Amino acid sequence: MWQFNTLVALHIVSGTIGLVTMWVPIVGKKGGDTHKRWGKIFAHALLITGILAIGISLVTLRYPLETHPFSDDAALVRGLFGWMMLYLATLTIMLSRYGMWCIQNRRNHTANRSAMNLALQAATAVTAVNCAWQGYMINQPLMIGISFIGVLSAVLNTRFIFQASPPLNEWLIQHTRGLVGAGISVYTAFFAFGAVNLMPQLAFNPILWSTPCTLGVSLLLYHQYKVYQQRRRISQRNRSDAQPT
User: Fold this and answer.
1) How far apart are CA 169 and CA 151, in angstroms?
2) How far is 11 from 45, CA to CA, in rounded Å?
3) Could you give the number of structural domains in the chain?
4) Nearest-CA neighbor of 102 among 23, 173, 155?
5) Range of the domain at 221
6) Torsion angle of alpha carbons 49, 22, 197, 134, nearest 10°?
7) Is residue 195 a contact partner of residue 208, using CB atoms and an 8 Å limit?
């Protein structure tokens, strides 16, 4: 239990840093020093949070009732706090790394095809499918539904990674999608798993689970719309410059 409690304590610290610092690059001026500095802090905090969450999930899978004494259903605890946390942790790590690699490799797209990047996409897909299967085995539709996010993310990310000639500023969309997606994952886990200890009656409330995803997706769609507008303006200017006078 001392190992589990230590992991949880460190997880809370790093997760809190990630939850707070996420808003600095979102609200602040894009591309500036403040955006870059706090964005890196946020991404590294999520990486640490995800790694610690993997440790928590593995201990939970081994000792479900000892680590979660509020329940006497070992299968349920293994499913929700073991397999699902393992999946969400892998998703968080993948998205935070993917988001950072997209901006680091914006001038060299082929560098995104690294073994580690592809391995994280595969690991996310595998843990997502496993989460869905485990949810099916214990009749938990929540585990099945949330798994689609990981599969879809891995497929879309891999599609971009192997895209021969991405559209103008597509790396910016992918960069934002990765890091905001990681933030959604952490906020979802925070509301869901934290609610079990603070308000157990809200642990499976669909509103609690869907709120971070709804807000995050709305933010991503707005950002994507802004990039598309910029892309359209540049395209129109290029066509105008190409016309003979």
Assistant:
1) 24
2) 10
3) 1
4) 173
5) 2-230
6) -60
7) yes
Nearest-10 crossing angle of helices 170-198, 84-104: 150
Asked if residue 243 is part of any domain, the answer here is no
158 part of a folded domain: yes
Considering the entire predicted model, what is its pTM? 0.85
The kind and range of the H/E element at 189 are helix 170-198
Instruction: Per residue of the chain (245 residues), give pLDDT as tens.
Output: 788 889 988 988 998 898 888 888 877 777 778 888 898 999 999 999 999 999 999 999 999 988 888 778 899 889 988 999 999 999 999 999 999 999 999 999 999 999 999 999 999 999 999 999 999 999 988 889 889 989 999 999 999 999 988 888 888 889 888 888 888 878 877 776 666 656 655 555 666 666 676 776 777 777 777 777 777 777 666 666 666 65
